[in-house]
TrEMBL record:
Annotated EC: 1.3.1.9
A GO molecular-function descriptor: enoyl-[acyl-carrier-protein] reductase (NADH) activity
UniProt catalytic activity: a 2,3-saturated acyl-[ACP] + NAD(+) = a (2E)-enoyl-[ACP] + NADH + H(+)
Family indicated by similarity: Belongs to the short-chain dehydrogenases/reductases (SDR) family. FabI subfamily.
Record-given protein name: Enoyl-[acyl-carrier-protein] reductase [NADH]
Protein's organism: Terricaulis silvestris
PANTHER family (alphabetical): ENOYL-[ACYL-CARRIER-PROTEIN] REDUCTASE, ENOYL-[ACYL-CARRIER-PROTEIN] REDUCTASE [NADH], CHLOROPLASTIC
Length: 264
């Protein structure tokens, strides 16, 4: 147990189960003394989230569809009433229709699905961040989760890659606007992890195995590594870092062509 988040209160959005990246992050923040509120999507998830939240001493567990402004307003109103202020926000939310996450991007992407993916996976960070910032003093910090598919072409990632590119750009513009107020906004580009979200991507398991085999560390990305990065960015240790996309992927993103040890 540490003290890095002692006295800090924050909202974690995007826990679906105990494999969720948001949950890995929440556990490390709580172990460092943070007080956490959680949101979940849809009633069905509540019975899974509540015990997790209670296990880290959380009193506030709220439903929130991130594409619904009334839900977002209700969540931040509640935080204002209960806490008065907020120190951090974790946005770990993404969605694209399964039919988009395979094959040809050009052929499979529809206008409706494209806009929905953009709304939930990119704009929702702006929408939540705007409300969170109003409750933050100087020192406030926000983090979202992104993936290499924003920067490079990866199989099946398609619409989600485009949405992640938008999310990363949103991170920089949010950092620009909130910087003068002493509030920081960053993104963690995580290596492929075995969660519900990756199960929706055709060949998602291949992204995990290739991520391991091509990585310079020759290992899977660890939840501890992702959560450790979030802890750095959300605590005062990260006080001069903003507008950044930090890769936590065992060095997968720096490799152009995998090393075959000289074999032709
Ligand atoms: P996950 O399925 O556990 O989390 C995704 C969350 O998004 C779920 O909690 C889901 O309820 C939520 N969500 C979807 N639509 C929503 C909506 N309309 N309103 C509110 N919440 C909604 O999977 P995860 O891998 O933990 O994903 C978390 C984040 O990490 C996502 O942004 C994902 O793109 C990103 N990420 C994942 C990986 C990976 O390999 N798993 C790698 C890099 C980045």
């Amino acid at each position: 147990k540490g003290e890095l988040m002692r006295g800090k209160r924050g909202l974690v959005m995007g826990v679906a189960n105990d494999k969720s990246i948001a949950w890995g992050i929440a556990q490390q923040l709580a172990a460092q003394g943070a007080e956490i509120a959680f949101t979940y999507q849809g009633e069905a998830l509540e019975k899974r989230i509540r015990p997790l939240a209670e296990s880290v001493g959380s009193q506030i567990v709220l439903e929130c569809d991130a594409s619904n402004d009334a839900h977002l307003d209700a969540v931040f109103d509640r935080l204002k009433t209960s806490w008065g202020k907020l120190d951090f926000l974790v946005h770990s939310i993404a969605f694209a229709e399964k039919s988009e996450l395979k094959g040809s991007f050009v052929e499979n992407t529809t206008r409706e699905n494209f806009l929905r993916a953009m709304d939930i996976s990119a704009f929702s960070f702006v929408a939540a961040g705007k409300r969170a910032a109003k409750l933050m003093d100087r020192g406030g910090s926000m983090v979202t989760l992104t993936y290499l598919g924003a920067e490079r072409v990866l199989p099946s990632y398609n619409t989600m890659g485009v949405a992640k590119a938008a999310l990363e750009a949103c991170t920089r513009y949010m950092a620009r606007d909130l910087g003068p107020e002493g509030k920081r906004v960053n993104a963690i580009s995580a290596g492929a992890m075995r969660t519900l979200a990756i199960a929706g991507i055709q060949g998602g398991r291949g992204l995990i195995s290739t991520g391991r085999e091509w990585s310079v560390m020759k290992e899977d990305t660890s939840m501890e590594g992702i959560a450790g990065c979030a802890l750095w960015l959300l605590s005062d240790l990260g006080r001069s870092t903003t507008g950044e996309v930090v890769h936590v992927d065992a060095g997968f993103h720096i490799v152009g062509v995998p090393d075959t040890g000289g074999a032709e």
